[in-house]
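Ligand-bound model needed. magnesium ion.
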Amino acid sequence: MYMGPSDGGPSFRVSNFHEVKDERSIAAQGFRTILHCDANSFFASCETMLHPEYAYVPMAVCGSVEERHGIVLAKNELAKKYGVQTAEPVWAAKQKCPELLTVRPTYGLYGEVSQKMNKIFYDYTDLVEPFGVDESWLDVTGSLRLFGDGEQIADTIRARVKRELGITVSVGVSFNKIFAKLGSDIKKPDATSVIPPDRFASIVWPMPVSALLFVGPSTTRTLKRIGVYTIGDLACCDIEVLRRALGKNGVLLREFALGRDFADVTVSGYEPEPKSVSNGMTFRHNLQTQNDVSFAVTYLSMSVAERLRKHNLCCNNVAVSIRSPNLTTINRQTSLDHPTCLWSEISRAALALVNANRNGEEEIYSVTVHAERLTRENEFLTQQQFFPEAWETAYRRKHSLESTVDAIRARYGKCAIGIASAVNNRLL
Ligand SMILES: [Mg+2]
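Prediction:
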Protein backbone atom coordinates (compact mmCIF):
# COMPACT_ATOMS: atom_id res chain seq x y z
CA MET A 1 0.00 0.00 0.00
CA TYR A 2 1.30 3.44 -0.91
CA MET A 3 1.48 5.57 2.21
CA GLY A 4 2.39 8.92 0.74
CA PRO A 5 5.00 11.29 2.00
CA SER A 6 5.34 10.97 5.76
CA ASP A 7 6.84 14.40 6.20
CA GLY A 8 3.93 16.58 5.16
CA GLY A 9 0.41 16.68 3.87
CA PRO A 10 -0.87 14.80 0.85
CA SER A 11 1.11 15.36 -2.31
CA PHE A 12 -0.39 15.01 -5.76
CA ARG A 13 2.81 15.56 -7.65
CA VAL A 14 2.85 11.99 -8.90
CA SER A 15 0.87 11.63 -12.08
CA ASN A 16 -1.94 14.01 -12.92
CA PHE A 17 -4.46 13.76 -10.11
CA HIS A 18 -4.75 17.50 -9.68
CA GLU A 19 -6.27 18.04 -13.12
CA VAL A 20 -9.72 19.57 -13.05
CA LYS A 21 -12.05 18.49 -15.81
CA ASP A 22 -15.47 19.41 -17.04
CA GLU A 23 -17.73 16.91 -15.32
CA ARG A 24 -20.55 17.23 -17.85
CA SER A 25 -18.44 16.29 -20.84
CA ILE A 26 -17.06 13.37 -18.85
CA ALA A 27 -20.56 12.17 -17.96
CA ALA A 28 -21.48 12.30 -21.65
CA GLN A 29 -18.68 9.87 -22.43
CA GLY A 30 -19.91 7.30 -19.90
CA PHE A 31 -17.86 5.39 -17.38
CA ARG A 32 -14.29 4.38 -18.06
CA THR A 33 -12.85 0.95 -17.26
CA ILE A 34 -9.53 1.25 -15.50
CA LEU A 35 -7.33 -1.52 -14.16
CA HIS A 36 -4.61 -1.18 -11.56
CA CYS A 37 -2.22 -4.14 -11.72
CA ASP A 38 0.04 -4.63 -8.71
CA ALA A 39 2.62 -7.43 -8.71
CA ASN A 40 2.73 -9.32 -5.39
CA SER A 41 6.04 -9.50 -3.48
CA PHE A 42 7.67 -8.21 -6.64
CA PHE A 43 11.39 -8.28 -5.74
CA ALA A 44 11.02 -11.69 -4.10
CA SER A 45 9.13 -13.07 -7.12
CA CYS A 46 11.81 -11.78 -9.52
CA GLU A 47 14.55 -13.48 -7.51
CA THR A 48 12.52 -16.69 -7.51
CA MET A 49 12.38 -16.55 -11.34
CA LEU A 50 16.18 -16.79 -11.35
CA HIS A 51 16.38 -19.29 -8.49
CA PRO A 52 13.29 -21.54 -8.50
CA GLU A 53 14.50 -23.24 -5.30
CA TYR A 54 13.63 -20.04 -3.37
CA ALA A 55 9.97 -20.93 -3.78
CA TYR A 56 10.22 -23.66 -1.16
CA VAL A 57 11.83 -21.75 1.73
CA PRO A 58 11.02 -18.56 3.61
CA MET A 59 13.05 -15.95 1.73
CA ALA A 60 13.64 -12.21 1.88
CA VAL A 61 15.46 -9.78 -0.39
CA CYS A 62 17.55 -7.59 1.88
CA GLY A 63 19.23 -4.29 1.26
CA SER A 64 22.68 -4.27 2.74
CA VAL A 65 25.94 -6.16 2.55
CA GLU A 66 26.22 -5.90 6.26
CA GLU A 67 23.25 -7.81 7.57
CA ARG A 68 23.38 -6.04 10.87
CA HIS A 69 22.27 -2.85 9.17
CA GLY A 70 20.23 -4.44 6.41
CA ILE A 71 16.49 -4.18 6.10
CA VAL A 72 13.93 -6.42 4.42
CA LEU A 73 13.02 -5.05 0.99
CA ALA A 74 10.63 -7.84 0.06
CA LYS A 75 9.67 -11.28 1.31
CA ASN A 76 7.94 -14.30 -0.16
CA GLU A 77 4.65 -15.81 1.03
CA LEU A 78 6.37 -18.36 3.29
CA ALA A 79 8.32 -15.63 5.09
CA LYS A 80 5.12 -13.64 5.41
CA LYS A 81 3.63 -16.54 7.38
CA TYR A 82 6.34 -16.02 10.00
CA GLY A 83 5.38 -12.37 10.30
CA VAL A 84 8.41 -11.07 8.42
CA GLN A 85 7.66 -7.49 7.38
CA THR A 86 8.94 -5.23 4.64
CA ALA A 87 11.27 -2.46 5.88
CA GLU A 88 12.08 -4.21 9.17
CA PRO A 89 15.73 -4.85 10.12
CA VAL A 90 17.09 -8.22 9.00
CA TRP A 91 18.05 -9.18 12.56
CA ALA A 92 14.43 -8.68 13.68
CA ALA A 93 13.16 -10.77 10.78
CA LYS A 94 15.61 -13.54 11.69
CA GLN A 95 14.34 -13.54 15.26
CA LYS A 96 10.87 -14.34 13.92
CA CYS A 97 12.18 -16.83 11.38
CA PRO A 98 15.70 -18.17 12.14
CA GLU A 99 15.89 -20.21 8.90
CA LEU A 100 15.02 -17.16 6.77
CA LEU A 101 17.04 -17.18 3.55
CA THR A 102 18.30 -13.67 2.84
CA VAL A 103 19.35 -12.71 -0.68
CA ARG A 104 20.83 -9.55 -2.15
CA PRO A 105 18.93 -7.51 -4.73
CA THR A 106 20.03 -8.26 -8.32
CA TYR A 107 21.12 -5.26 -10.37
CA GLY A 108 18.89 -4.52 -13.32
CA LEU A 109 16.60 -7.48 -12.78
CA TYR A 110 13.57 -5.64 -11.43
CA GLY A 111 13.53 -3.07 -14.21
CA GLU A 112 13.82 -5.80 -16.81
CA VAL A 113 10.97 -7.87 -15.40
CA SER A 114 8.93 -4.71 -15.00
CA GLN A 115 9.35 -3.99 -18.72
CA LYS A 116 8.29 -7.53 -19.63
CA MET A 117 5.21 -7.19 -17.44
CA ASN A 118 4.25 -3.85 -18.99
CA LYS A 119 4.75 -5.36 -22.43
CA ILE A 120 2.02 -7.87 -21.61
CA PHE A 121 -0.22 -4.99 -20.47
CA TYR A 122 0.32 -3.26 -23.84
CA ASP A 123 -1.34 -6.22 -25.57
CA TYR A 124 -4.65 -5.06 -24.06
CA THR A 125 -4.39 -1.26 -24.43
CA ASP A 126 -1.82 1.35 -25.37
CA LEU A 127 -2.88 3.45 -22.37
CA VAL A 128 -0.51 2.04 -19.76
CA GLU A 129 0.84 4.21 -16.94
CA PRO A 130 3.49 2.57 -14.77
CA PHE A 131 3.46 3.67 -11.14
CA GLY A 132 6.73 2.53 -9.68
CA VAL A 133 8.43 -0.65 -10.76
CA ASP A 134 5.67 -3.17 -10.00
CA GLU A 135 2.39 -1.32 -10.56
CA SER A 136 0.60 0.09 -13.60
CA TRP A 137 -2.74 1.61 -14.47
CA LEU A 138 -4.41 0.51 -17.69
CA ASP A 139 -7.34 2.28 -19.35
CA VAL A 140 -9.09 -0.57 -21.21
CA THR A 141 -12.29 1.34 -22.05
CA GLY A 142 -11.54 1.06 -25.77
CA SER A 143 -10.66 -2.64 -25.58
CA LEU A 144 -13.82 -4.03 -24.00
CA ARG A 145 -15.38 -5.24 -27.25
CA LEU A 146 -12.19 -7.08 -28.16
CA PHE A 147 -11.27 -8.69 -24.86
CA GLY A 148 -14.37 -8.78 -22.65
CA ASP A 149 -15.30 -6.67 -19.63
CA GLY A 150 -12.82 -5.23 -17.11
CA GLU A 151 -12.93 -8.26 -14.85
CA GLN A 152 -12.32 -10.66 -17.75
CA ILE A 153 -9.38 -8.60 -18.98
CA ALA A 154 -7.99 -8.51 -15.45
CA ASP A 155 -8.25 -12.29 -15.14
CA THR A 156 -6.62 -12.81 -18.55
CA ILE A 157 -3.73 -10.53 -17.63
CA ARG A 158 -3.24 -12.24 -14.26
CA ALA A 159 -3.10 -15.65 -15.91
CA ARG A 160 -0.62 -14.50 -18.55
CA VAL A 161 1.76 -12.74 -16.16
CA LYS A 162 1.71 -15.78 -13.91
CA ARG A 163 2.33 -18.22 -16.77
CA GLU A 164 4.92 -16.18 -18.65
CA LEU A 165 6.81 -14.53 -15.79
CA GLY A 166 5.95 -16.64 -12.75
CA ILE A 167 4.65 -13.57 -10.95
CA THR A 168 1.25 -13.19 -9.34
CA VAL A 169 -0.61 -9.93 -9.72
CA SER A 170 -3.51 -8.35 -7.86
CA VAL A 171 -5.81 -6.28 -10.04
CA GLY A 172 -8.34 -3.62 -9.11
CA VAL A 173 -11.02 -2.82 -11.69
CA SER A 174 -12.97 0.42 -11.40
CA PHE A 175 -14.10 3.57 -13.18
CA ASN A 176 -11.25 5.77 -12.00
CA LYS A 177 -7.57 5.43 -11.09
CA ILE A 178 -7.94 6.03 -7.35
CA PHE A 179 -10.54 3.27 -6.90
CA ALA A 180 -8.68 0.89 -9.24
CA LYS A 181 -5.61 1.35 -7.04
CA LEU A 182 -7.71 0.77 -3.93
CA GLY A 183 -9.17 -2.36 -5.53
CA SER A 184 -5.78 -3.96 -6.13
CA ASP A 185 -5.18 -3.84 -2.35
CA ILE A 186 -8.47 -5.52 -1.41
CA LYS A 187 -7.45 -9.09 -2.16
CA LYS A 188 -3.88 -10.45 -2.50
CA PRO A 189 -2.15 -12.40 -3.87
CA ASP A 190 -3.37 -13.31 -7.35
CA ALA A 191 -6.89 -11.87 -7.31
CA THR A 192 -9.22 -9.48 -9.13
CA SER A 193 -11.41 -7.05 -7.17
CA VAL A 194 -14.07 -4.99 -8.90
CA ILE A 195 -15.39 -1.66 -7.62
CA PRO A 196 -18.29 -0.86 -9.99
CA PRO A 197 -19.74 2.67 -10.36
CA ASP A 198 -23.20 1.68 -9.11
CA ARG A 199 -21.98 -0.03 -5.94
CA PHE A 200 -18.76 1.75 -5.02
CA ALA A 201 -20.06 3.33 -1.82
CA SER A 202 -20.97 0.03 -0.17
CA ILE A 203 -17.49 -1.35 -0.96
CA VAL A 204 -15.26 1.67 -0.48
CA TRP A 205 -16.89 3.82 2.20
CA PRO A 206 -16.48 1.39 5.14
CA MET A 207 -12.71 1.20 4.47
CA PRO A 208 -10.24 3.18 6.62
CA VAL A 209 -9.35 6.52 5.09
CA SER A 210 -5.65 5.52 5.02
CA ALA A 211 -6.48 2.97 2.30
CA LEU A 212 -6.95 5.86 -0.13
CA LEU A 213 -3.98 6.79 -2.33
CA PHE A 214 -2.28 9.96 -1.02
CA VAL A 215 -3.60 9.55 2.52
CA GLY A 216 -0.35 8.92 4.38
CA PRO A 217 0.25 8.66 8.12
CA SER A 218 0.33 12.40 8.76
CA THR A 219 -2.84 13.07 6.74
CA THR A 220 -4.52 10.17 8.53
CA ARG A 221 -3.70 11.79 11.89
CA THR A 222 -5.03 15.16 10.75
CA LEU A 223 -8.25 13.58 9.49
CA LYS A 224 -8.71 11.64 12.73
CA ARG A 225 -8.57 14.94 14.61
CA ILE A 226 -11.63 16.16 12.70
CA GLY A 227 -13.46 12.87 13.16
CA VAL A 228 -12.77 11.36 9.74
CA TYR A 229 -11.91 7.66 10.10
CA THR A 230 -13.38 5.98 7.03
CA ILE A 231 -13.53 6.89 3.36
CA GLY A 232 -17.29 7.35 3.91
CA ASP A 233 -16.58 9.89 6.69
CA LEU A 234 -14.37 11.75 4.22
CA ALA A 235 -17.04 11.70 1.51
CA CYS A 236 -19.62 13.15 3.92
CA CYS A 237 -17.31 15.64 5.65
CA ASP A 238 -18.06 19.35 5.41
CA ILE A 239 -15.91 20.96 2.71
CA GLU A 240 -14.94 23.96 4.85
CA VAL A 241 -13.84 21.73 7.72
CA LEU A 242 -11.61 19.82 5.30
CA ARG A 243 -10.27 22.99 3.76
CA ARG A 244 -9.28 24.32 7.18
CA ALA A 245 -7.56 21.05 8.10
CA LEU A 246 -5.77 20.21 4.83
CA GLY A 247 -6.24 23.12 2.44
CA LYS A 248 -7.29 22.44 -1.13
CA ASN A 249 -5.82 18.96 -1.00
CA GLY A 250 -8.43 18.09 1.63
CA VAL A 251 -11.18 19.13 -0.77
CA LEU A 252 -9.61 17.04 -3.53
CA LEU A 253 -9.39 13.97 -1.28
CA ARG A 254 -13.13 14.32 -0.59
CA GLU A 255 -13.74 14.34 -4.36
CA PHE A 256 -11.77 11.09 -4.61
CA ALA A 257 -13.88 9.54 -1.82
CA LEU A 258 -16.97 10.47 -3.84
CA GLY A 259 -15.60 8.69 -6.90
CA ARG A 260 -14.85 11.95 -8.68
CA ASP A 261 -11.33 11.31 -9.88
CA PHE A 262 -11.12 12.20 -13.56
CA ALA A 263 -7.37 11.89 -14.05
CA ASP A 264 -6.42 10.19 -17.31
CA VAL A 265 -4.21 7.15 -17.52
CA THR A 266 -1.21 8.93 -19.03
CA VAL A 267 1.37 7.23 -21.13
CA SER A 268 4.68 7.71 -19.31
CA GLY A 269 6.74 10.85 -19.53
CA TYR A 270 4.26 13.10 -17.79
CA GLU A 271 6.88 15.18 -15.99
CA PRO A 272 9.16 17.25 -18.20
CA GLU A 273 12.85 16.56 -17.85
CA PRO A 274 14.41 18.95 -15.34
CA LYS A 275 17.37 21.26 -16.09
CA SER A 276 18.61 21.00 -12.52
CA VAL A 277 17.36 19.30 -9.40
CA SER A 278 17.42 20.97 -5.99
CA ASN A 279 16.14 20.28 -2.55
CA GLY A 280 16.32 22.73 0.32
CA MET A 281 14.81 22.80 3.73
CA THR A 282 14.60 24.95 6.81
CA PHE A 283 14.87 22.47 9.63
CA ARG A 284 13.05 22.75 12.94
CA HIS A 285 16.25 23.99 14.60
CA ASN A 286 19.29 25.77 13.26
CA LEU A 287 22.03 23.34 12.32
CA GLN A 288 24.64 23.47 15.07
CA THR A 289 26.85 20.42 15.34
CA GLN A 290 28.75 18.62 12.61
CA ASN A 291 26.23 15.81 13.06
CA ASP A 292 23.33 18.18 12.34
CA VAL A 293 25.02 19.46 9.20
CA SER A 294 25.88 16.05 7.89
CA PHE A 295 22.40 14.72 8.62
CA ALA A 296 20.75 17.65 6.83
CA VAL A 297 22.97 17.43 3.76
CA THR A 298 22.53 13.66 3.49
CA TYR A 299 18.77 13.91 3.92
CA LEU A 300 18.50 16.52 1.13
CA SER A 301 20.92 14.69 -1.15
CA MET A 302 18.82 11.53 -0.96
CA SER A 303 15.79 13.18 -2.48
CA VAL A 304 17.92 15.00 -5.08
CA ALA A 305 19.44 11.67 -6.14
CA GLU A 306 16.04 10.00 -6.17
CA ARG A 307 14.70 12.60 -8.61
CA LEU A 308 17.79 12.34 -10.83
CA ARG A 309 17.34 8.57 -11.06
CA LYS A 310 13.65 8.93 -11.78
CA HIS A 311 14.56 10.87 -14.92
CA ASN A 312 17.62 8.70 -15.70
CA LEU A 313 19.87 11.72 -15.26
CA CYS A 314 23.27 12.28 -13.69
CA CYS A 315 24.77 15.54 -12.48
CA ASN A 316 28.26 16.83 -13.22
CA ASN A 317 28.12 19.67 -10.69
CA VAL A 318 27.00 19.86 -7.09
CA ALA A 319 26.15 23.23 -5.54
CA VAL A 320 24.97 24.34 -2.12
CA SER A 321 23.20 27.44 -0.84
CA ILE A 322 23.89 28.10 2.81
CA ARG A 323 21.72 30.55 4.70
CA SER A 324 22.90 31.89 8.04
CA PRO A 325 20.57 32.92 10.91
CA ASN A 326 20.98 36.59 9.85
CA LEU A 327 19.57 35.45 6.47
CA THR A 328 22.61 36.11 4.32
CA THR A 329 23.09 33.39 1.73
CA ILE A 330 26.23 32.10 0.12
CA ASN A 331 26.29 29.85 -2.95
CA ARG A 332 29.14 27.52 -3.72
CA GLN A 333 29.60 24.88 -6.37
CA THR A 334 32.04 22.21 -7.39
CA SER A 335 32.41 20.01 -10.45
CA LEU A 336 32.66 16.25 -10.01
CA ASP A 337 35.24 13.99 -11.59
CA HIS A 338 32.48 11.77 -12.96
CA PRO A 339 28.72 12.21 -13.46
CA THR A 340 26.64 10.66 -10.71
CA CYS A 341 23.12 10.07 -9.45
CA LEU A 342 24.16 8.49 -6.17
CA TRP A 343 23.22 10.24 -2.97
CA SER A 344 26.35 8.99 -1.28
CA GLU A 345 28.47 10.87 -3.83
CA ILE A 346 26.29 13.96 -4.03
CA SER A 347 26.17 14.33 -0.26
CA ARG A 348 29.94 13.88 0.05
CA ALA A 349 30.55 16.74 -2.41
CA ALA A 350 27.86 18.94 -0.84
CA LEU A 351 29.13 18.35 2.67
CA ALA A 352 32.68 19.24 1.67
CA LEU A 353 31.35 22.54 0.23
CA VAL A 354 29.40 23.36 3.37
CA ASN A 355 32.30 22.53 5.67
CA ALA A 356 34.74 24.58 3.61
CA ASN A 357 32.43 27.61 3.77
CA ARG A 358 31.39 27.59 7.39
CA ASN A 359 33.23 29.55 10.04
CA GLY A 360 33.88 27.18 12.92
CA GLU A 361 30.67 26.26 14.71
CA GLU A 362 28.60 28.99 13.04
CA GLU A 363 24.92 28.01 12.99
CA ILE A 364 23.11 27.41 9.71
CA TYR A 365 19.51 28.51 9.19
CA SER A 366 18.80 26.53 6.06
CA VAL A 367 20.64 24.65 3.37
CA THR A 368 19.87 23.68 -0.23
CA VAL A 369 21.59 21.02 -2.31
CA HIS A 370 21.58 21.49 -6.10
CA ALA A 371 22.49 18.95 -8.77
CA GLU A 372 23.49 20.77 -11.96
CA ARG A 373 24.87 20.25 -15.49
CA LEU A 374 22.69 17.21 -15.99
CA THR A 375 23.47 14.51 -18.54
CA ARG A 376 21.66 11.33 -19.52
CA GLU A 377 22.69 8.41 -17.40
CA ASN A 378 22.98 5.90 -20.27
CA GLU A 379 25.32 8.23 -22.20
CA PHE A 380 27.58 8.25 -19.21
CA LEU A 381 27.46 4.51 -18.70
CA THR A 382 28.30 3.82 -22.36
CA GLN A 383 31.36 6.06 -22.12
CA GLN A 384 32.73 3.78 -19.50
CA GLN A 385 36.12 3.27 -21.17
CA PHE A 386 37.20 6.31 -19.13
CA PHE A 387 36.65 4.42 -15.92
CA PRO A 388 38.24 1.22 -14.67
CA GLU A 389 36.05 -1.86 -14.64
CA ALA A 390 36.21 -2.36 -10.89
CA TRP A 391 35.03 1.20 -10.44
CA GLU A 392 32.08 0.59 -12.74
CA THR A 393 31.11 -2.57 -10.88
CA ALA A 394 31.19 -0.69 -7.58
CA TYR A 395 29.16 2.16 -9.08
CA ARG A 396 26.57 -0.22 -10.50
CA ARG A 397 26.26 -2.03 -7.20
CA LYS A 398 25.68 1.20 -5.28
CA HIS A 399 23.26 2.32 -7.96
CA SER A 400 21.29 -0.90 -7.62
CA LEU A 401 21.05 -0.50 -3.85
CA GLU A 402 20.07 3.14 -4.00
CA SER A 403 17.39 2.62 -6.65
CA THR A 404 15.97 -0.23 -4.63
CA VAL A 405 15.80 2.14 -1.68
CA ASP A 406 13.95 4.65 -3.92
CA ALA A 407 11.33 2.03 -4.70
CA ILE A 408 10.82 1.27 -1.02
CA ARG A 409 10.68 4.93 -0.04
CA ALA A 410 8.17 5.67 -2.78
CA ARG A 411 5.90 3.01 -1.41
CA TYR A 412 6.33 3.09 2.34
CA GLY A 413 7.18 6.72 2.93
CA LYS A 414 10.42 8.60 3.27
CA CYS A 415 11.16 7.26 6.73
CA ALA A 416 10.58 3.60 5.89
CA ILE A 417 14.18 3.26 4.84
CA GLY A 418 17.00 5.67 4.62
CA ILE A 419 19.44 7.08 7.03
CA ALA A 420 18.64 5.57 10.39
CA SER A 421 18.98 8.96 12.05
CA ALA A 422 15.98 10.29 10.10
CA VAL A 423 13.70 8.46 12.49
CA ASN A 424 12.74 10.80 15.34
CA ASN A 425 15.44 13.26 14.38
CA ARG A 426 14.92 16.53 16.24
CA LEU A 427 15.63 18.47 13.04
CA LEU A 428 12.64 17.06 11.15
MG1 LIG B 1 3.35 -4.79 -5.44
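The chain has 17 helices and twelve strands.
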